[in-house]
Recover the amino acids of this structure.
């Protein structure tokens, strides 16, 4: 059974700092990996999707990498801002469904 | 596009009552997913549909839970009878091609069973 782990569970950084969020998964047979952002009381917003044949994806200040062989992904956020404060979830698709990690709660302090 | 629309946003009811949650997916999306989020268990997939047909309902916790998709623009998740442990946020999501396209989530229904 696919298990997804995110480390750390919570992270607090000062504004402007670069940071890395980690995600690991136990079964490398995946279609894709997605990073989501969740704000309190809201649904999930897809940030980046990396297909199984890809190694990384970039969007603005965000960069996500995927290493299927080691079962790891990282989300890099450059020059963090208070507006980046949210919970970030990683999810892998073993088929057409998805398995989520518990998330990393990020706080960026002004 | 209006995005995935869920209703109601909040539901408070007494145990034993029937609860019906509703979802309108994004037009043109062939896949629809129902998830449940709790502090203890995180985000769990309950069931998903492809072209209105249930494909995998292995995440549905008990026979008290049922889901239908009578047409491409509407789905329901029903709990009957409801229990306090069903209290959670229920999300609906849709996608056009899950292996290559992201899932789009609604804002969820916060369900409280007293």
């Amino acid at each position: 059974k696919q298990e997804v782990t995110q480390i750390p569970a919570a992270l607090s950084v000062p504004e402007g700092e670069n940071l890395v969020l980690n995600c690991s998964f136990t079964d490398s047979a995946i279609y894709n990996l997605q990073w989501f952002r969740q704000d309190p009381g809201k649904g999930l917003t897809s940030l980046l999707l990396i297909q199984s044949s890809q190694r990384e994806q970039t969007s603005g200040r965000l960069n996500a990498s995927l290493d299927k062989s080691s079962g790891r992904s990282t989300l890099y956020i450059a020059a963090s801002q208070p507006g980046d404060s949210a919970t970030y979830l990683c999810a892998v698709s073993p088929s057409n469904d998805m398995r989520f990690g518990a998330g990393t709660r990020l706080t960026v302090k002004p | 596009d209006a995005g995935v629309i869920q209703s109601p946003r909040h539901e408070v009811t007494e145990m034993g009552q029937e609860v019906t949650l509703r979802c309108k997916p994004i037009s043109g999306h062939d896949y629809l997913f129902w998830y449940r989020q709790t502090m203890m268990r995180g985000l769990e997939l309950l069931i998903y549909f492809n072209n209105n047909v249930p494909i995998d309902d292995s995440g549905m916790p008990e026979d008290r839970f049922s889901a239908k998709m009578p047409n491409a623009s509407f789905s329901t998740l029903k709990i009957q009878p409801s229990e306090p442990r069903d209290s959670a946020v229920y999300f609906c999501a849709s996608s056009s091609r899950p292996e290559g396209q992201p899932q789009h989530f609604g804002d969820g229904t916060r369900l409280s069973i007293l």
